[in-house]
Amino acid sequence: MGMHKLSHRHGDVRDTVVDLLIYGASGLLFAVDIKCFTAPNQIAPGGVTGLSTVINFLSGAPIGLLNFLLNLPMFIWAFFEVGYKLVLRTVAANLITSLCIDQIGSRLPAYAGNPMLAALFGGLLEGISLSLVFMREATTGGTDLVARLLKRRFRHLSTGRLMLSIDLIIVLISAVVYKRIESILYALIYIFISTRVIDTILYGADIGHGKVMWIMTAHSEQVAQKIMDELDRGVTGLQARGMYSGIHSEMLMCAVSRTEVYRVKDLVHSVDPDAFIIVGDAGEISGEGFNHPTANDKTLPELVRAARRKKEAH
């Protein structure tokens, strides 16, 4: 038991070190993005960082410091609504990023060339930077965290729409402050590039999204077994009937990450070259294999209640 606990502790320390190194790399990329491309070219690409850039333009206050201070109320709110481990990772990522923007970014040269190139390369860098953080199961605060928190209160609203709405509000504010319509256009290009880069890098690593595949085959048992054995994905068999042929058969349904789509196709066609496959988008997938268990992650009120129960038990 003691060796198991020691091994578990070493694993936690190793994960924490890796997290911090990844946050550092992400922060460096974000600092280059903000200090070299977006801020000098009056591009405020939404979110808290975009708002910080606008306030910096008006007051000269450090962007990194503003970014952290504006996120602070959301961090406090998140402790009561979201698991504390996610919040702690997010605070660490945001703090490191903010320090990089102010301490390292201030030493970087500003790009004063074509604003279109600034928007393109800025979006590219932000996409890479955020992807690194997302893959460590954290966020950098800002729009993503606000959307998560609002989603808990307004479950009928789409997370993506919430994030886009917040970003658009900041972009519109920046256009008023900078007094030029081009700021909106460049910001939209930046957001589009960043989103596409994140989607490409994660490419199915995002544990809450993926694809749904429907497979029509005369060899459903063999196909299902192959998918379960080689991909470790669950498969559901559904009774179906071809309306033209009137033939009853079994249709397979399988939820996979985007990186696994072509692997499933290859597996299916290796068993049945004539199989009929439909691939659809899954806006959200939750459950084993997609969402990591969060039973050991608790909000602040839950921690307080657990401590009280433990105290009362003694």
Secondary-structure class: alpha+beta
What order do the SSEs take from the amino end to the carboxyl end, as H and E? HHHHHHHHEHEEHEH
Question: How would you write the strand order of the largest sheet?
Answer: 2-3-1-4
- Structural Rg: 23 Å
Gross geometry: globular
Number of helical elements = 11
* Domain count: 2
Helix content: 55-70%
Strand content: 5-15%
Distance from first to last alpha carbon = 24 Å
Mean pLDDT: 83
The largest β sheet comes out as: 4 strands, antiparallel
Number-wise, the strands total 4
Unreliable runs = none
Describe the structure.
The chain has helices spanning 2-38, 47-59, 63-81, 84-104, 115-135, 142-153, 159-178, 182-202, 220-231, 261-271, 300-313; strands at 210-216, 236-241, 248-256, 276-282. The protein has a 4-stranded antiparallel beta sheet with strand order 2-3-1-4, covered by helices on one side. It is globular, with a radius of gyration of 23 Å. It is of the alpha+beta class. It contains 11 helices and 4 strands. Helix content is 64%, strand content 9%. Helix 2 runs antiparallel to helix 3, helix 6 packs across helix 7 (159-178) and helix 9 (220-231) crosses helix 10 (261-271). The chain has 2 domains: 2-202, no CATH class; 210-282, Alpha-Beta Plaits (2-Layer Sandwich).
